[in-house]
Amino acid sequence: MMVRDDAAVAEVQAAYADFGRGDIPALLNRLTDDIVWTTPGAGSPIPHAGRLQGKAQVGQFFQGVNEKLEFHDFDPNEFIANGDVVVALGTWDATVRGTSVRIRDGFAMVFRLRGAKIAEFREYSDSREYAAALESLRA
User: Fold this and answer.
1) What is the Cα–Cα distance from 2 to 45, expressed in whole angstroms?
2) Which residue in 27, 30, 36 sits closest to 54, CA to CA?
3) What was the pLDDT predicted at 120?
């Protein structure tokens, strides 16, 4: 069953709202059990970067994000939809905990829905500065 564009965008926006409130259990409820979640930085010090599968691994991803980043702003501000695929464009601004490194970057995040749930997520952003800040904590 294909989700209509407006319903797909509404579901993705609701997931962002959950994240903004820190309600990760609600966000995880919006995912399929077999979610595939891919973020940049595989093989770097970024915790849980790369390809993850299942709600448990995605939950660990958000725990790692919370442990490593203090967000000042997270703004998905443009949504482009085609059926069950939504692309969110935006910016984020955070300080890497334990450092004075503040990162301001843009992102493109692609969501693929199955039914009314998010079945696939892929983030496109520059992870170099974040990885370097985490690497400096190891030294």
Assistant:
1) 37
2) 36
3) 98
Determine the residue type at 67: E
Structure tokens at 30: 């919006």
Q: Do the Cβ atoms of 83 and 95 come closer than 8 Å?
A: no
Q: Does residue 47 contact residue 97 with C-beta atoms inside 8 Å?
A: no
The candidate with the shortest Cα–Cα distance to 27, out of 40, 38, 39, 12, is: 12
pTM score of the predicted model: 0.92
Q: Cβ distance 85 to 109 under 8 Å?
A: no
Q: Give the CA distances from residue 6 to residues 31, 90, 94, in Å, rounded to whole numbers and listed in that order.
A: 18, 18, 30
Q: How many residues does the chain have?
A: 139
| Rg of the chain on CA atoms, in Å | 15
Residue type, 102: R
* Mean pLDDT for all residues in the chain: 92
| Contact assessment for residue 67 and residue 74, using Cβ atoms and an 8 Å cutoff | no
Token pair belonging to 114: 């199955």
Tokens representing residue 3 in the block: 């989700």
DSSP 45: S
